[in-house]
Specification:
Helix content is about 45%, strand content about 10%. It is mostly helical and about 100 residues long. The strands form two sheets. A three-stranded antiparallel beta sheet has the order 1-3-2. The protein is globular and about 50 Å long. The N and C termini lie far apart (about 45 Å). About 10% of the residues are buried.
């Protein structure tokens, strides 16, 4: 089996059709498992293993396919409207707390 070199942020952005800044945020937040900086300094470049791309795609397939920017959830008992994305994060947080 041939070992593939880890990918750069630009390469991952192109593969996943995401903005470079979004990929960097995914790396910082740990959403791309195994992503690492090439140096210990804050200016180090991110490298992302191929397996992280597969894991990210799999995780995304398990999430509801809705656009958080277009759909708002309203709750008459609360003054704020929530995007679907925010509601899902809050629900996950509540489940993790129990």
């Amino acid at each position: 089996m041939t070992e593939h070199p880890d990918l750069t942020v630009k390469e991952v952005a192109a593969l996943l059709r995401l903005n470079v800044g979004t990929v960097k945020k995914l790396c910082r937040d740990g959403d791309l498992p195994g992503a690492y900086k090439t140096t210990a300094s804050p200016q180090g470049n991110w490298r992302i293993p191929h397996a992280a791309i597969t894991a990210y795609r799999t995780a995304r397939q398990e999430e509801p396919a809705v656009s958080a920017r277009r759909i708002l959830l309203t709750d008459p008992s609360k003054p704020k409207n929530l995007t679907v994305e925010t509601a899902i994060r809050r629900e996950r947080g509540a489940r993790l707390a129990h």
